[in-house]
């Protein structure tokens, strides 16, 4: 296979990352976390894996502000959708059901009817939320802020959400666009046999009658042409984002030299743990008499700091929302968990080169993450700013650079 075909297989729209979720404030270069608000800049992360993982290391003395830059508004819209699903309250959906729906929306090209209804419901609420920011320039949830996006970018997001709300595409259509990508990718090898990475899908799901009835609208894109197509990755598994590794040895057992558990099952366990952490940090706000408020879900000695305890923000509304209730009948605030001391702000796709010119961003970020797909935009900036590679780092997946501050 030529290198051109390899690049083509990764697609031109990045729906998920190529590396596992990382606690970006608990790396080899940050042995002791700084006091006060912690700021992270994510450039092209594609999904919220690093956000969720970093939250697990926060203590009750931390506040975390994540700034997100993506290369298209379609990816921003999907980031918002995945964060929306992550912040659903236990009153709205159980942790296990939330994990299943999240994974399905995250990586499946075809989803169940129940999941499709959840996606449309989320799209309706997010569309209303973004529309509100067009008139007031304020965000309608303490954790999710789109007010710094340009008006045309917010208009584009509303268009995308409205598209998700519309009649769902039937599975046959998404199978056709997927098959077209596979045929282009494999070239002359396509007709020799079934694509090997489609074999399990065909034999274990389609022929066994799994109830995947509608196309996953959030993975379809009109970015390249005016007609809807799947322009994402067809060669890298989405389960890389939430790890195919685990410390639970039972999940890594083999029989006949084959793993007993699948990457999906490992990811499900890992995501469930992340959602439990979110619920723990949120629930500490609901019981002010709790003598031992949430300090950390996955606390290590590197993450323990001293400092003035921050004031908790009031929790989001806990009123249960029936799926059939139209969002216009509710208040403007999204009915989601308000995770204590955590805020995610989305910046314009073209804002990276402008950040150094604004004083508010100067020396602001404790950590900057840049994806492989966006590294060309920051390589020269990093070198000019005096960043050097860390050679004694423990991870062989991510390259880490640091700068001495005098």
UniProtKB/TrEMBL annotation:
GO terms for biological process: axonemal dynein complex assembly; motile cilium assembly. It is found in: Dynein axonemal particle. Residues 144-209, 211-380 form the Dynein assembly factor 3 C-terminal domain. Pfam families: DUF4470, DUF4471. InterPro entries: DNAAF3, DNAAF3_C, DUF4470. One of its GO terms (cellular component) is dynein axonemal particle. Residues 15-111 form the DUF4470 domain. It comes from the Eukaryota. Residues 308-329 are annotated as: Disordered. Keywords: Cilium biogenesis/degradation, Cytoplasm. Residues 308-317 have a biased composition (Polar residues). Required for the assembly of axonemal inner and outer dynein arms. Involved in preassembly of dyneins into complexes before their transport into cilia. Belongs to the DNAAF3 family. This is Dynein axonemal assembly factor 3. It comes from Sinocyclocheilus grahami.
């Amino acid at each position: 296979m030529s290198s051109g075909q390899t690049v083509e297989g990764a697609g031109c729209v990045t729906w998920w990352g190529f590396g596992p979720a990382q606690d970006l404030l608990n790396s080899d270069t940050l042995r002791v976390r700084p006091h006060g608000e912690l700021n992270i800049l994510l450039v092209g992360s594609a999904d919220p894996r690093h956000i969720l993982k970093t939250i697990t290391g926060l203590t009750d003395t931390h506040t975390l502000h994540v700034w997100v830059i993506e290369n298209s508004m379609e990816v921003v819209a999907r980031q918002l959708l995945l964060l929306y699903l992550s912040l659903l309250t236990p009153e709205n959906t159980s942790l296990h059901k939330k994990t299943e729906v999240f994974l399905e929306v995250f990586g499946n090209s075809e989803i169940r009817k129940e999941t499709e209804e959840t996606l449309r419901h989320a799209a309706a609420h997010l569309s209303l939320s973004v529309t509100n920011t067009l008139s007031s320039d304020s965000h309608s949830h303490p954790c999710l802020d789109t007010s710094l996006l340009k008006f045309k970018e917010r208009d584009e997001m509303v268009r995308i959400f409205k598209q998700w709300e519309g009649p769902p595409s039937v599975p046959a259509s998404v199978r056709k666009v997927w098959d077209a990508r596979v045929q282009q990718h494999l070239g002359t090898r396509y007709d020799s046999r079934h694509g090997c990475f489609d074999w399990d899908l065909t034999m274990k799901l389609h022929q066994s009658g799994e109830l995947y009835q509608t196309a996953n609208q959030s993975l379809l894109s009109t970015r390249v042409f005016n007609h809807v197509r799947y322009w994402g990755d067809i060669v890298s598994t989405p389960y890389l984002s939430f790890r195919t590794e685990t410390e639970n040895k039972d999940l890594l057992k083999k029989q006949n030299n084959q793993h007993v558990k699948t990457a999906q099952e490992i990811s499900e366990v890992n995501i469930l743990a992340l959602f439990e952490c979110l619920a723990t940090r949120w629930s500490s706000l609901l019981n002010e008499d709790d003598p031992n408020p949430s300090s950390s879900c996955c606390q290590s000695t590197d993450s323990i700091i001293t400092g003035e305890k921050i004031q908790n923000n009031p929790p989001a509304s806990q009123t249960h929302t029936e799926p059939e209730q139209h969002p216009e009948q509710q208040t403007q605030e999204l009915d989601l968990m308000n995770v204590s001391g955590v805020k995610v702000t989305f910046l314009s796709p073209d804002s990276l080169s402008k950040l150094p010119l604004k004083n508010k961003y100067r020396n602001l970020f404790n950590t900057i993450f840049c994806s492989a797909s966006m590294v060309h935009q920051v390589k020269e900036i990093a070198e000019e700013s005096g960043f050097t590679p860390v050679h004694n780092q423990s991870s062989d997946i991510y390259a880490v650079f640091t700068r001495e501050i005098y």
